[in-house]
Amino acid sequence: MSALNIENLQNTFQNAVNLGGSPGAVSTSPTQSFMNTLPRRLSTSKQQKILKPFSTGDMKILLLENVNQTAIEIFNKQGYQVEFLKGSLPEEELIEKIKDVHAIGIRSKTKLTAKVLEHAKNLVCIGCFCIGTNQVDLNFAAKKGIAVFNSPFSNSRSVAELVIAEIISLARQLGDRSIELHTGTWNKVSNKCWEVRGKTLGIIGYGHIGSQLSVLAEAMGLHVIYYDIVTIMALGTAKQVSTLDELLNNSDFVSLHVPETPETKNLLSAPQFAAMKDGAYMINASRGTVVDIPSLIAAMKAKKIAGAAIDVYPAEPRKNGVGAFADDLNKWTSDLISLPNLILTPHIGGSTEEAQSAIGIEVSTALSNYINEGNSVGSVNFPEVSLKALNYDQENTVRVLYIHQNIPGVLRTVNNILSNHNIDKQFSDSHGDVAYLMADISSVDQSDIKEIYEKLNQTDAKISIRLLY
Ligand SMILES: NC(=O)C1=CN([C@@H]2O[C@H](COP(=O)(O)OP(=O)(O)OC[C@H]3O[C@@H](n4cnc5c(N)ncnc54)[C@H](O)[C@@H]3O)[C@@H](O)[C@H]2O)C=CC1
Ligand SMILES: O=C(O)CCC(=O)C(=O)O
């Protein structure tokens, strides 16, 4: 579906006729009932027209990694074919599956590399049902005309709450006491167990999660300092520090909330652990590449670091199971798990019912809006373009979605092609090498549509085209 398939034009014409000619019938369609539940981006008093120039039953959505039920329900209401798998897939299987799907939903484990995306002949869009998008080759996807969406903050609170729990758990050695008692050992101690009140929390990365954590931590009596590459307004009485070292020198707890980027790889390694206070604690619920684990192991063995909580790992198992977290995944695993006062969790920072349900709705709605209307607002790799929904008074109107290389002269060429019709609205934007033009053209006969498509398809700058009507 990266471009309207000419062979399917017959079907699509029929579909358009059905929709345009019989609004009453449309009001009983699943799509309409779904649309009615959505907060509309651009309100209109007229009944909104459903734009779907394809048979919705042919729309294939592949959902991996146990994406929430809310997303499945929304896609089912659209009439799409949904395939749902609990785990992620190894590369070869992923390549096979991605060949004929129009949209794919993933979480943090599925790697959508250029090699995988190269085989995605029909893919229109990708939904990351999470915050991080580092698992997708965003530039390659954009160059193929594939828009990527995520959920920028629906699980932020869940991560912040987990970190709060870990701060107290580490300070009181709760993990160790619990493991001991599970195996019959009564070990009532107070040595090196602390209140968190009055201690300093250093937050690295003061974005959605870091700033939520800041507010919660202050409510418990912690002092908060933070380090970020950009200047960010402090919440409460938190203070931004100007260097990473300043944060490390002064924090009793250090918590990481940065994205995975080349700059954040091994952000905490041997020199940074050496710069931390003796007996400090470290928490990483960001990405596994951000902390050099062998250096952490050395710092904990030397008692420089009194405890740590880790939620994310350089390599993570593809699915749940006994024996999945072992040395063949990360070679230091045995060494790591033998350490005291170390809380290990299986990447569950965002895994709450509230977060997953909200993410399911948010991302499936964004994908549906993009598929059905071309609205790319919220995409992380694509020009953000949107036009007001069409209504039933706008007969013979076609929405042109033209994704193209961002080079001079393209708009002139496209507007020449569209010039026999009235261009009611047009919105174009670019993002790096890729540009996206959305235009509503009126006075279009059914017989014109194929010609418009074919002319646009012959333009040199074209990446992909869809015509909605
Ligand atoms: N454990 C889990 O389940 C989850 C993990 N995450 C991870 O947490 C990360 C952060 O999430 P948000 O707070 O929503 O992201 P955000 O984008 O709102 O904030 C990230 C902050 O890090 C800062 N930053 C970037 N590079 C930096 C550097 N080199 N040094 C210092 N600061 C730097 C940015 O300026 C920004 O303020 C995500 O990228 C994701 O990888 C997110 C959700 C769940
Ligand atoms: O819930 C997940 O699978 C991933 C959570 C996460 O790391 C994210 O949202 O970036």
Describe the structure.
This protein has helices at 9-21, 23-27, 30-37, 69-78, 91-98, 114-117, 138-143, 156-171, 174-182, 208-219, 244-250, 270-275, 293-301, 333-337, 353-373, 410-418, 446-457; strands spanning 60-63, 81-84, 103-106, 125-128, 147-149, 200-204, 223-227, 239-240, 253-256, 280-284, 305-310, 342-344, 398-405, 422-431, 434-442, 462-468. By secondary structure, it is α/β, with parallel strands linked by helices. The chain folds into three domains: 60-150 and 357-371, Rossmann fold, CATH 3.40.50; 156-344, Rossmann fold, CATH 3.40.50.720; 387-468, Alpha-Beta Plaits (2-Layer Sandwich). A hairpin with a 2-residue loop joins β14 (422-431) and β15. The protein is elongated and about 80 Å long. 2-oxoglutaric acid is lined by residues 107-108, 130-132, 155, 350-351.
Number of helices: 17
Mean pLDDT: 90
Query: Which percent bin holds the helix content?
Result: 25-40%
Structural class: alpha/beta
The count of DSSP E runs of length 2 or more, i.e. the number of strands, is 16
Whole-number tally of structural domains: 3
Percentage of residues in DSSP E strands: 15-25%
Span between termini: 15 Å
Name the overall outline: elongated
Looking across the biggest beta sheet, what order are the strands in? 8-7-6-9-10-11-12
Uncertain runs are 1-44
Bound ligands, each once: 1,4-dihydronicotinamide adenine dinucleotide, 2-oxoglutaric acid
CATH homology group of the largest domain: NAD(P)-binding Rossmann-like Domain
Rg to the nearest angstrom? 26 Å
What is the CATH-assigned architecture of the largest domain?
3-Layer(aba) Sandwich
Class of the largest domain, according to the CATH hierarchy? Alpha Beta
What is the CATH topology assignment of the largest domain?
A: Rossmann fold
Largest sheet: 7 strands, parallel
